[in-house]
């Protein structure tokens, strides 16, 4: 099993160590040198041995072929660098703020999951977020995760942590460490957490999973989700999260991907943050999302039009850039500003979300200032 990954990443060439945050940028000539060494069965060059020791304290084994420890990724003409994969929309929680709305246990057969992951590798995807629903409850998660890891993909997992204490999950993640685990935190007490997730015993399983992951040495990121139901525990949630890893805070709720406004009233008004103007993103150009059926879209929000990757194959990705550009155009309900452009005084446009997200807010009949900075709008409710 590889200890390092050497790979193109957009216009750069990187050497990365799974499970760790640091990497080493190398020139193209050295990337070619590593590729030749793995194909000819020669040892690691001295500069890589020294670099691995300095960057990660890793002692590459002497007198062994480089290919035993370093996986060298082939270049891709498709220009994708990152992706997300919604392996299953099913979840063992029923949180009121969830943007997915209906959470069904649906997905592809194993052969199609393998085909999708192969396409991602061949498209150039170096970083992949595996998400859901709750990805760890997918019956084929360990196998799909291991397969993606062995392809030389750096993996992150977005999870509620309810399954992290289970032996098979822990074994999978310790043998093949993810870049990090991203866990959502919904309360600091059993009463609040279990009530919010509508799942008795959820808080105990969450803490058990956190403890098991920390003991296994896995990198953790805690995402505090503040809503009207748990806002009074914010300080306690911060203290809890800081014991385990890096902490992020999320306050603004979005409609569901079907344009349902149900999650919006869950917001805690005191903690809402004003969004910065949207200045563009690389969705559909260097990033894409795949749903449980292998439908590739520009992102998790702009899901239509989509491309059925398992049917069309990797060539279908060539159409994503055009789809992305089309989805970012203004649609009905927006007027009076130059989207994505600065005005004559150098001020950015008034949109605080991308067009696909603004469209969901419009369909949900949300207050306009939730996605727009035009003056004289009603306050966020």
Automatic annotation (TrEMBL):
UniProt keyword Ribonucleoprotein present: no
Gene Ontology molecular functions: catalytic activity; iron-sulfur cluster binding; metal ion binding
Full protein name: Radical SAM core domain-containing protein
Source superkingdom: Bacteria
Pfam families found in the cross-reference section: Radical_SAM (PF04055)
Radical SAM core domain sequence ranges: 77-282
CDD domains assigned to the protein according to its UniProt record, in alphabetical order: Radical_SAM
Keywords annotated in UniProt: Iron, Iron-sulfur, Metal-binding, S-adenosyl-L-methionine
Record bears the keyword S-adenosyl-L-methionine: yes
């Amino acid at each position: 099993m590889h200890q390092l990954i050497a790979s193109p990443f957009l216009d750069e060439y990187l050497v990365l160590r799974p499970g760790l945050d640091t990497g080493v940028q190398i020139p193209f000539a050295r990337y070619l040198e590593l590729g030749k060494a793995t194909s000819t069965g020669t040892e690691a060059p001295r500069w890589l041995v020294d670099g691995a020791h300095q960057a990660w304290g890793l002692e590459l084994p002497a007198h062994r072929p480089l290919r035993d420890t370093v996986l060298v990724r082939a270049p891709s003409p498709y220009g994708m660098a990152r992706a997300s994969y919604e392996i299953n929309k099913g979840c063992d929680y029923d949180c009121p703020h969830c943007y997915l709305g209906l959470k069904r246990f649906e997905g592809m057969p194993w052969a199609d999951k393998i085909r999708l992951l192969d396409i991602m590798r061949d498209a150039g995807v170096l970083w992949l977020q595996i998400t859901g629903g709750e990805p760890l409850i997918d019956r084929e998660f360990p196998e799909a995760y291991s397969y993606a890891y062995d392809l030389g993909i750096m993996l992150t997992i977005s999870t509620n942590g309810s399954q992290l204490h289970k032996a098979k999950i822990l074994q999978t993640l310790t043998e093949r460490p993810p870049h990090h685990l991203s866990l959502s935190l919904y309360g600091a007490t059993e009463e609040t957490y279990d009530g919010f997730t509508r799942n008795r015993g959820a808080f105990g399983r969450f803490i058990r999973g956190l403890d098991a992951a920390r003991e296994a040495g896995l990198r953790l990121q805690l995402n505090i989700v503040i809503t009207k139901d748990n806002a009074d525990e914010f300080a306690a949630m911060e203290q809890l999260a800081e014991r385990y890893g890096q902490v992020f805070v999320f306050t603004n709720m979005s409609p569901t991907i079907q344009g349902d406004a149900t999650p919006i009233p869950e917001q805690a008004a005191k903690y809402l943050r004003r969004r910065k103007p949207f200045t563009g993103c690389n969705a559909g150009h260097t990033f894409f999302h795949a749903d449980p059926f292998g439908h590739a879209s520009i992102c998790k929000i702009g899901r239509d039009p989509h491309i059925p990757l398992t049917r069309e194959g990797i060539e279908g990705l060539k159409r994503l850039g055009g789809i992305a550009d089309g989805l970012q155009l203004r649609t009905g309900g927006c007027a009076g500003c130059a989207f994505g452009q600065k005005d004559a005084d150098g001020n950015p446009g008034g949109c605080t979300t991308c067009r696909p997200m603004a469209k969901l807010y419009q369909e949900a009949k949300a207050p306009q200032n939730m996605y727009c900075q035009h003056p004289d709008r009603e306050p966020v409710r």
